[in-house]
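Why do we bother with a discrete structure alphabet at all? Because it lets us treat a fold like text: something you can write down, compare, and reason about line by line. To make this less abstract, here is a complete entry for DUF3048 domain-containing protein. Read it the way you would read a sentence in a foreign language you are learning: slowly, and without expecting to understand everything at once.
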Amino acid sequence: MLFASACGKKESQESEKKQPEKEKAAIKKTAPLTGVETNIVPPERAVAVTINNHPDARPQSGLSQADIVYEALAEGNVTRFLAIFQSEKPENIGPVRSARQYFIDLSKGYDALYVAHGYSPEAEQTLKSGAIDNINGIQHDGTLFKRADFRKAPHNSYITFKNIEKGANDAGYDMDKAPKPLDFLSDEEAGSLEGEAAENLKVAYSQNQTFIAEYHYDSQEEKYTRSSGGAETVEYDNDQPVLLDNVIVIEAAHTVKDEEGRRGIDLTSGGKAYVFQKGIIQEAEWKNENGRILPYKNGEAMKLVSGKTWINIVPELTMVSFE
């Protein structure tokens, strides 16, 4: 019996050794930036992409699969997105737009590979200094980046996730290390959140309806939907809506950098914030923790609801209304 037991254990160990690597890679685990169980397969490094939000670039591709999206003013009243991908790999991402220094800084907070097409003068210096691993369409237009024929430049630059991985491999970037996990509420904690009811909120980057972002909480789905310019934010290819679990709005000092109206944003000093979760609002403060914008309440870090997060960066919280 002892001999049979030993043989059985040995056969089991040998079977585990022979288990295909793909099967091992498909073992479910919790995604660090969403807190949701997922089948992450290598590479596990986060990828951050600057995505165009000009009306001529809508609807975009890839936003619904981003773990975290930052929305910030780029120039004038026009906003851009920094979409951070880790738990999902969209087939196509874009339109991709040019880099800004604050998008680079936010990407570094997740040790992400940064992807953009073009750059401001300040961002160009940072990228060329090697401060962050990056792939840029200026060097790879027509190769890694492709121009869509259904849109006009500069609103037609796209990149596939496969080409992002190819570009990273060609450049010798390490793509195996996952980002440090965020903190998430348990299901019980998320179900007992307290605050003022706020199922509809509006972030007015401009008096122009085109750049007013609106969010609606669907109590049945327990998700927020997003719209701008009166149209729901969906995927270009399949009309899949962007569904969110956390909507955060932070107030940060803005400056105008040049004659083009490019913005500078202070993302280090901290300030006031609103946190929308489960159809309620909580007033909070935000802090920059090693490049990450995180909410705090009464001096303690707030946890996120498991799922996807959208962070709006505004010059003043007076631009935000809710009911």
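What the structure line is telling us, in plain words: The helical segments are 2-18, 21-25, 101-108, 121-128, 137-140, 161-171, 187-191. The radius of gyration is 21 Å.
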